[in-house]
Amino acid sequence: xxxxxxxxxxxxxxxxxxxxxxRRVISSGQYIxxxxxxxxxxxxxxYIGTTFAVGCANGLDAIYLILRAYIELGRLAPGDxxxxxxxxYIATINAVIQAGLKPVPVEPDATTLQISPDxxxxxxxxxxxxxxxxxxxxxxxxxQELADICNEHNLLLIEDNAQAHGCRFGAKRTGSLGNAAxxxxxxxxxxxxxxxxxxxxxxxxxxxxxxxxxxNYGSPEKYIFxxxxxxxxxxxxxxxxxxxxLRYLDKENKRRTEIADIxxxxxxxxxxxxxxxxxxxxxVYHIYPIxxxxxxxLQEYLYANGVQTLIHxxxxxxxxxxxxxxxxxxxxxxEFIHNSELSLPISPxxxxxxxxxxxxxxxxxxS
Length: 367
Prior knowledge:
By secondary structure, this protein is α/β, with parallel strands linked by helices. The protein has helices at 7-12, 15-28, 35-48, 59-72, 91-98, 117-123, 144-153, 205-215, 236-246, 249-266, 295-304, 332-340, 352-364; strands at 52-56, 81-85, 102-106, 128-134, 156-160, 168-169, 172-173, 180-184, 198-202, 288-291, 341-344. A seven-stranded mixed β-sheet has the order 1-9-8-5-4-2-3, sandwiched between helices. A two-stranded antiparallel ribbon has the order 6-7. It has a two-stranded antiparallel sheet with strand order 10-11. Strand 2 (81-85), helix 5 and strand 3 form a beta-alpha-beta unit. Helix 2 packs antiparallel against helix 9 (236-246), helix 4 (59-72) packs parallel to helix 5 and helix 10 (249-266) runs parallel beside helix 13 (352-364).
């Protein structure tokens, strides 16, 4: 069976260095807020191209902490509207609601599957104070047009970079394109920890310090509490592991691109819609999504022939039980994507031969 994502195999590539990092942490006797976290934060900020990186517990917390910090700093206020993609993982929306803000879902472009600038313009109201973009599937969602919209309407531009570590827009990396960015290092991400982990990147010193304080119970120093905070700290073990894996991120993203090129060139089944081409380096292919109205049949066929696939995501946010206030929304492009999307295997350990075999199976399939 060709696994959708073989995490064991991926981590075995770096097993010796990871084991050494773990032993180093155990020997240090310091497991929270120590040197490993500080080292990784500096390495990751340098890699992304920002002045600051602040580790936290996970990607959801990273988004929440950014929004909450902006509230504490007076840049946002409870009840303000934040435009979000309708086509996204629900964590993006959860964070906005948990911060006391109002998410406003906006349809994607049907070709890029990323949030549509035209639809953003239609959704802006006097209460709109921020735009939260998601570099979904590993593809850069940023554009100069989005930056212009934010400048025109004085909106904060926040990035959800959970799926796009290492992706570029021109000379800059995603995670450095807006006012602040949230990152997830969930094990399945392009840069994955061996557990939950996250970070915030920004050039804003005041925001970075506020995020750090909020993530540490609201405490800027021991037993002093400036805010009602939460416990959302990146631990030493995960930071040490991430430092190891960061060294190989660009190389592993290159392999993902090579696999995507095999799919792009080879798949020619008229019942399959491929992602529209991305400018060079603007996609690190965390996920390779294809669209077909017979998605479930194709998934069953591929599995029967030894290929595991996943669906990202079977139920859109506005149809989830958790969001009854959105159930009456009409978001047909988002619903089409969620009813049609199938994710093919793509990872640093997938071989070109395996990718060619998947192409052959898809081209031979008829619904």
